[in-house]
Design a protein that fits this description.
Layout: E1 2-11, H1 19-26, E2 35-42, H2 52-64, H3 70-75, E3 77-82, E4 91-100, E5 108-115, H4 127-144, E6 152-160, H5 164-172, H6 182-200, E7 225-230, E8 237-244, E9 251-258, H7 265-273, E10 290-297, E11 304-305, E12 308-309, H8 320-336, E13 342-345, E14 356-363, H9 368-371
Parallel strand pairs: 2-3, 6-7, 10-13
Antiparallel strand pairs: 1-4, 2-4, 5-8, 6-8, 9-14, 10-14, 11-12
Helix pairs in contact: 4-6
Length: 378
């Protein structure tokens, strides 16, 4: 027997609206026992006090408890990204696997998940976090049955952040934290986590990283890391997406790296590698084949976009990550023809300064140009 992946995008009317997931489990569309991860875009502010993420995780776990053991519920990776600015649509992506007969279309999408142990908060934003995440990525690759880092196309991570209480606990024990600003701790955590991905995938040697470069040296980055920080956890929940000859089925994943927030051409190239015509915006006939689009977004440190000044970094009312999410979601939405896309803000060490990695998951059996050829790109 082989494994085959499934990916379902479920719209949400609120952070705790799990009715779509419950219905899909009830009618057999989703096998709850095969769920590896649930990724979600929730309609909060995406900052330290965004409790829509924890609200969504609690509702998702409650929905799964009637179907899974307590251990299985906790083994799922729940990666909630707060902030659906602009027209980005709140939704959940349910990813998992089931058994399939060998001999199907291969290589195919492979999905693996892992949880790291709880992290001492004096290590957040430091080399200890980089090492911890690197080990977690390797564990998720093993769960997906992926041996070669080159076969990994995207690594989605949920990482912790610092709160006033967490900082006080570290200092009361005689320790110190890398940063005392709780909002900035989100970036430090995302950055260290992303460097952990780079180490695990062989993009950067661990010897090239020390505490002083984390969040500061923009020349160090991963082309396949996506990290989102939240108050709702104290460890890291990791999801690896790749291609494997040990998996079969119509789903495939590819990735691209945007150089800035309007650099959609690499994403179009990824779509074409998956068989889409991608001539302008995806046609109505092509859109059902796009199962998921995940991207990172940030304002960039220069305050300029292709030479023109922007004000995302100077707005004291709205965090730059919120501006960036809306901006990149608009750019990518205009390419794929809908706004049910997963854009996470804050891209420290995730792609070049001002840009970010993107992952595209497609159902090759639904791509018009491939359907007649049995779902395999030429």
């Amino acid at each position: 027997m082989a494994r085959t992946a499934f990916v379902h995008r479920i719209q949400a009317a609120a952070p705790d609206d799990v009715s779509g997931l419950e219905a899909a489990i009830a009618d057999g569309t989703i096998d709850s026992g095969g769920i590896v991860a649930i990724l979600g875009k929730t309609e909060g502010n995406g900052n330290v006090n965004d409790f829509t993420r924890a609200f969504a995780v609690r509702a998702l776990k409650d929905a799964l408890r009637p179907h899974l053991s307590p251990e299985a519920v906790e083994a799922v990776s729940y990666v909630m990204s707060g902030g659906t600015e602009g027209a980005m649509s709140p939704h959940f992506l349910v990813l998992g696997s089931s058994e399939a007969e060998a001999g199907g279309l291969s290589p195919a999408l492979a999905v693996g998940g892992a949880h790291t142990p709880a992290m001492p908060f004096d290590q957040l934003g430091r080399l200890g976090q980089v090492r911890l995440v690197a080990e977690g990525v390797r564990a998720a690759m093993a769960a997906a049955g992926i041996d070669d880092p080159a076969d990994v196309h995207f690594v989605q991570i949920k990482c912790p952040l610092l709160t006033a209480e967490r900082i006080a606990a570290v200092e009361a024990a005689g320790g110190s934290v890398a940063i005392r600003d709780t909002l900035k701790s989100m970036g430090a955590s995302r950055g260290a986590s992303s460097l952990g991905v780079a180490v695990a995938l062989g993009e950067i040697a661990i010897e090239a990283i020390e505490d002083g470069v984390i969040g500061r040296d923009a020349s160090l980055w991963s082309s396949r890391a996506s990290a989102s920080a939240g108050v709702e956890l104290v460890n890291h929940e990791i999801v690896v997406l790749g291609m494997s000859r040990d998996w079969v089925g119509p789903l495939a994943v590819d990735h691209a790296v945007m150089e800035d927030g309007i650099d959609i051409l690499p994403v179009r190239d990824a779509l074409r590698r998956l068989g889409f015509a991608a001539d302008g915006q995806l046609s109505a006939a092509e859109r059902p084949a796009l199962k998921a689009l995940l991207a990172k977004a940030e304002a960039g440190s220069s305050g300029r976009l292709r030479g023109l000044r922007h004000t995302m970094l100077d707005d004291s009312d709205i965090s730059s990550t919120r501006h960036a999410r809306a901006f990149v979601a608009g750019s990518l939405g205009s390419l794929v023809g809908h706004a049910g896309i997963y854009v996470s803000g804050g891209a420290e060490h995730q792609g070049p300064d001002g840009g970010g990695p993107v992952a595209v998951i497609a159902d090759r059996s639904l791509v018009p140009s491939l359907a007649a050829a049995g779902g395999s790109p030429s």
